[in-house]
Amino acid sequence: MIVKNLKELRELCEAVGDHVHLRENGKSKDGSFIDILIGMGTCGLAAGALETFEQLEIVLKKKGLNHVNVISVGCVGFCHMEPTVQVNIPGKEPVIYGRITHDQVEKLVNKVIIDGGFLQENYLIKSFRRAVI
Amino acid sequence: MRGESEEMIDLLRDKVAELGLTNTVKVIKTGCFGFCEEGPIIKIKPDNIIYVKVKFSDVDEIFEQHVLRGHIVERLLSVDPETQETYKEDKALGFYKKQYRIVLRNCGFINPEDITEYIAVRGYEALAIVVSENTPEEVIEVIKKSQLRGRGGGGFPTGLKWELTAKHRRSDKYIICNADEGDPGAFMDRSVLEGDPHTILEAMAIAGYAIGASTGIIYIRAEYPLAIHRLEVAIKQAKEYGFLGDNIFESGFNFNIEIRLGAGAFVCGEETALINSLQGMRGEPTKKPPFPSEAGYKNMPTSVNNVETFANIPPIILNGPEWFSSIGTENSKGTKVFALAGKINNIGLVEVPMGTTLQEIVFDIGGGIIDGKKFKAVQTGGPSGGVITGDNLDTPIDYESLRSIGSMMGSGGMIILDEEDDMVAICKFYLDFSREESCGKCTPCRIGTTRMFEILERLINFEGTPEDLETLEDLAINIKNSSLCGLGQSAPNPVLSTLEYFREEYEAYAYRTKKTSYQIIGDKCIGCTKCSKVCPVDCITGSIKKVHIIDEEDCIACGACYTACPVDAIIKP
Description:
The complex is a heterodimer of chains A (133) and B (573). Chain A is α+β, with helices and mostly antiparallel strands and 133 residues long. Chain A has helices spanning 6-15, 18-25, 42-46, 49-62, 105-114, and strands at residues 34-39, 68-73, 85-88, 95-97, 123-126. Chain A has a single domain (6-126), classed as Glutaredoxin (3-Layer(aba) Sandwich), CATH 3.40.30.10. Chain B has a five-stranded mixed beta sheet with strand order 7-8-6-5-9, sandwiched between helices. In chain B, strands 11-10-14-12-13 form a five-stranded mixed beta sheet. Chain B has a two-stranded antiparallel sheet with strand order 1-2. In chain B, strand 12 (375-380) and strand 13 form a beta hairpin.
């Protein structure tokens, strides 16, 4: 589809904004889905982010958690803590966890997604602030 | 809340002006801080105190109490809903605290292979605004007003570069994105390309519109396969949406981008060498003038800009040049991305406003030195830069201040060295790099860097003489003054700067006073015999439960004993 002008672009921006709004302020219009972001730049991949990504998809499927999306993103900058995973749950501040290698995935899903809890040992930061403009 | 915020800004500005404090207190309009439900928000820097739900009537109190007297207005602080405690500073990890992300705004936040996520963060809006509402001259004016300078290292004003390219009337013009990131330890551009490729495409199209070019070329090293892949995906998607191609946003403006792979030669980061390489010739620099803005790729006017420079363009268009020029120091505006590496706890990618001190980057954001060791120096600017010692840690970072202390901004690699690092060896490492990467076209660089490397090698092998230090310094100055391009002119920088700040380390080699063997501290040794068991040359003597001794003559400084010692009784040479 070709976007013809500024107005169309702004309408499109509004229409596709749900996932981004969840990450920005914890509010999505839909409100039913959870986004898990995995840092998959070269640094993340070198630390095993691809294995984490695949394992997450397996575990989520096994547990029937169809409302959870796994999304590959670039590097957040925490190279010393790769692979990093950001969990965005509606109504909650996003939490970034570090060193989520594939063997940590099941624990993350159980504790954070199913129980709605917190993974203390891998916790890096909890904030809507991505130190951005 | 928007209208009220504007009034508060005006009120604060009036108050500052009234008291004649315009030089010390700046009222800055920023974007959203991310606590949208708690707005309007006022943040006081450098204290990093955030006041939430501020009303027009609270502004007086904040100004009188906090700005003038330094008292915190407790009732306006944010309350953590879970712990019920108020927090003055935001509790984010120190790593995030002093950062301000313009270039990296979308990295780690959106899926780089999904164009709709980029559109959702106002992607391509800047391009749409520019082609439908602005003339090319107006775009150049905005970039000039923002005072953005090239982020590849040179610091040339971007708006001026575009203007110089725009003024030549030729049939074809070109926009080139320099993604030939080659400094050891630098990976800023790679992260931007991998995390937010659409930003670069959008910015290149804006640049193309401004200078009158319809072709953009991304020159990227083949060593970045993931970045190349994501760029390819991004270009394909952008074409599908009509953000690239013919008649963009029905404005009549056409722009296409192609990717060209470089073989990874350091010198091809230099714009004339880059253009030669693009044309299928040897990657060698040519004399300037003529500058690429006049006769560049295919002899046509060409603007070569760095990845990080481009990533600043869309936010400048969306937020206005005043917003951008309100960040940073007098002559260096905006932010700079640095890749922290070396002996530092939080290795990673950080983006800070210009004017942030090295102290803040290394200790507050970087979390200090690994294992609590002592800080020795920071190497900035890679093989073209120099070292910055503890004495200069409070230097605010910008183009001029770094140059004045013998280093340079470079592209943004920052390698942190601790007390155990040998400066002569570090210097040798960089010289080895420069000598390998010298294209060989001009003599000072080709032969000079090799000669300098040989001297350093001689010194490290204890075959040097005190005269070598003078020769080294002479050579360095001559190479700097007589080389053709930036590579040769800056290759001696590591030598000159380490000679200036760490001359005693060179002298220890030249006068053969440097200790070359490990030593055992008698008071600490418990006589466990572990060291003597691992020593490959059997130069450690001593019996069980007695203090051991290393024979300095025979020690080969392999470090095996140092690693084996359970009580840290062995010291390095």
